[in-house]
Amino acid sequence: MIAGLLNLYKPQGPTSHDLVDWVRRGTRQKKVGHAGTLDPNASGVLILCLGFATRLSEYVMESPKTYRARLRLGIETDTYDALGAVVAENPAPVVREAVEAALVGFRGEIQQVPPMYSALKQGGKKLYDLARAGKEVERAPRTVTISRLELLAWEPPFVTLEVDCSPGTYIRSLAFDLGRVLGVGAHLAALERTASGSFRAEDAVRWPDFESAMQAGTWTDHLLSADRALAFAPALYLTAEQTQFVCTGRSIPAAVPGEDAALSRAYDPAGRFIAVLGRHADQWTPYKVFDHAE
Q1: Do the Cβ atoms of 15 and 40 come closer than 8 Å?
Q2: What is the pTM (predicted TM-score) of this model?
Q3: Which DSSP category does 157 fall into?
Q4: Phi, psi of 279 (to 5 degrees)
Q5: Domains, the chain, with CATH or none
Q6: According to the model, what pLDDT value does residue 115 have?
Q7: DSSP secondary structure, 90-118, as one string
């Protein structure tokens, strides 16, 4: 079993799950998952996890995201994006200054209502299943953080934005809400995820190139080490005794480096990444321990 991370540039069209299936078949690896869904119409950074790295997906999913979003003003759709049916149109002109002013209200910590066409569950059912059945339910707003929101291009009726945001932010909802504030409606015409944590689009392997690599048997050349999922956490290099403690689920004394860190990456004397440790007072406690043969 091969373990690692793949920074894949997802093209428009296939679902994130499609790519997982194609990679699973093409690499003949049983354990393949993704760390954060992209809508079918979206492109950009999609991190796939292979082998024991599937247990690290949460750390990539919880990392900040950067998007480049193209909005179409004047038209609302039921899905909040270009794939949906048009539900309202307003051809009234909008000036750039109005957009710039409206963006101010979306910066920082905001409340956001998820779209009906989303994979979130309510009452045990996915929202998009309810939406397809013609049902709309009330959704509780969620707190998200938009740390940066800039107007990149003004090509009315199209607007291109760049967004740095917390995980769980719906850019489709941002487009919908901005359209409502402007009084003309809007939907998301195109979306590219340009970064997920430390993984960036310019470093991602394009799908046609990875397909060719799978056919040639050279796909592992594109794999990144599993510990990249915790690039934000300090590294802790263990002695043989500490390694034995960690591998049997026991805590070890906490020490520099990572004195104030909540998590650390643990390595055995041979330099292998063997565990994720969490700090509790003056102890490092094993959260996840990896068997490199799994």
Answers
A1: yes
A2: 0.90
A3: T
A4: -85, 130
A5: 4-63+198-228 (3.30.2350.10), 66-191 (3.30.2350.10), 233-289 (2.30.130.10)
A6: 78
A7: ------HHHHHHHHHTTSEEEEEPPPSSS
Q: What DSSP designation does 220 have?
A: G
Place of tokens 């991370």: 5
Nearest CA among 209, 162, 273, 171 for reference residue 6: 209
pLDDT, averaged per 10 consecutive residues of the chain (294 residues), comes to 94 94 96 91 96 95 96 96 94 97 98 77 70 71 96 98 96 96 97 96 97 97 96 93 94 72 93 94 92 62
CA angle (228 as vertex; 226, 231 as ends), nearest 5? 145
Token pair of 153, please? 């291009």
Q: Which long-range contacts (CB under 8 A, 24 or more apart) does 198-203 make?
A: 198/63, 198/228, 198/231, 198/232, 199/5, 199/7, 199/45, 199/47, 199/60, 199/228, 200/7, 200/45, 201/9, 201/44, 201/45, 203/7
Q: What dihedral do alpha carbons 6, 203, 26, 218 form, nearest 10°?
A: -100
Provide the pLDDT for residue 119. 67
Say what the pLDDT of residue 125 is: 73
Catalytic residue annotation:
39
Q: CA angle at residue 265 from 236 to 273, to 5 degrees?
A: 95
